[in-house]
Amino acid sequence: MPAPPPSRLSAPSERSSGASASAPALEVERIAHTYRDRSGREVRALENLWLTVSKGEVVALVGPSGCGKSTLLKLICQLTSPDAGTLRGEPAVLMFQRDLLLPWLHALDNAALALRAAGRSRGSARAAARPLFAELGLDGFEQARPDELSGGMRQRVAFARTLLSGKPLLCLDEPFGALDAITRMQMQSWLEAALLHRPRTVVLVTHDVEEAVLLADRVAVLSPRPGTVLAELEIPLARPRARTDPLVAELRERALRALGLDAARAGATGTAGIAGAAGAGTAGVAGAAGAGGERSPGPAASVRGGGGVHPAGLARR
Amino acid sequence: MRRRAAYVLPAVALATAVVVAWELYVDLGGVDPFLLPAPHSVAGELWNSGGYLWQNFTVTAEEVLLGLALSLAVGFVAAVVIHLSPLARRAIYPHAVGSQAVPIAVFAPMLAFWWGFGIFPKLVVIALICFFPIVVTTVDALAAVDPEQLDLMRTLDAPRLRAFRLAELPSALPGALSGARIALAVGVIGAYIAESQTPTSGTYTGLGREINADLASDSTARAYAAALVLFLFAIACFYSLGLVERRLAPWTRRHRGELH
Questions:
Q1: Average pLDDT, stretch B103-107?
Q2: 3-state DSSP percent of chain B in helix, strand and coil, to 5
Q3: Is residue A100 within 8 angstroms of chain B, CB to CB?
Q4: Domain membership flag for residue B34
Q5: How many domains is chain B built from?
Q6: B148: which chain A residues are within 8 Å (Cβ-Cβ)?
Q7: How confident is the model at residue B151 (pLDDT cuts 50, 70, 90)?
């Protein structure tokens, strides 16, 4: 059983002003961003968006398409700059939705590209990438060309490349969005295992609410464009999580409700204690800490004191 | 074997049809053989003057290949500079276009004045003619690199030039090579112009000079035989470059293979 990262045990109190031992990995305040689309019209992608991510935390961003999720990741990774607001945090690396593997490099060299970009020699980059290949279930595929790999394997190589950048904050932009449903489920379990083995701070953009609930410690629900955080939902479940776990289904449903999509199986409340503990499950103000304590005494659970009320609550809308 | 035959056969069939039609036209149409020699007399010249044609061919082939290599080197560097610097693009690009329209004859005497009767002024002429297609295709290939690929290099903290070397340069290679294939065809014409326009010394002066001399002395059939050699040379070079591209950029070929 892998130990939880130490930073999870001491979740920071929200908006703490002092620089405590565990300063957030990322603080996004009042971000606004507008871009011009191809026809030259201005598109307000993000407006008045707040988000805080603690060290070692996995935060999923879900929202309707075009709500500026990808824009937010680009801002976090400093590939573009905001019109207003501030971003503070650790160095962040972006994993794109498309794997962007270079067709002339074999898989190992594609992963090692992160190190070569940082100036390492080909040989030393390969040597450093090789152990990760075994760990990520890629051994035997080192010499494969990208066009010989399946979609899932390509994403694994892309993830290896992202990890090898060495940056503490990973921004994953719908990493499994282009995969078929079965491969996607496999890759979700795979990513969960990979993150248990090598804990990192992660901001995961997804349109798949179940994926968010399975992988994240916290789910932030974004509004339609211009995107802002509508609600946040703690996911205090132990890992590894099972898709079939009623609590997963319940949290998924609450996230859907926060998105304005009422789940079909609304009667599912009460299958587990969590709904009662959360008080009818208004997303964003979940008493999730209590439910988590009830559910998962295991050390891997991320029990965050204070729970789900974050600066970007409903009131800001 | 069958597949290879399937690739070669259509070209052979078309060539045969053209040769037959040509032969019939000359034999039955009463065309003056000094204007248009019949294929059989061209073939006869190819046989009788084989050694002479070969010697001249090696001169021309050397000019074409070295001239192409020169224009590849200069053109690729120019394309990279144009790609990386908007200022260089504005400065160089219009001149590259304009240079295509300048008749070489205008400054051929200067080339001879600077570099004499040897091969180098001819290489310059050929390189000037080949330069443009190489620059254009390479600049386009560099510009066609996926912008997200560059974002990836940025998020991996690659400095601009390293990102260029790791991501853009290899992806522009197929473009540069297809530019070279186009340049090759015009490069053969370039060799003819170079030989015509710059003075030469030596026993064998290349197929271009030979064609001019043959036409002037009514040896039309041999001029046609020389043209046929150039024709075959261009085809051989074109497909050889295709093989080079397969070796240097195998990923493009595999991609194309999927589309079949």
A1: 81
A2: 85, 0, 15
A3: yes
A4: no
A5: 1
A6: 96, 98, 100
A7: very high
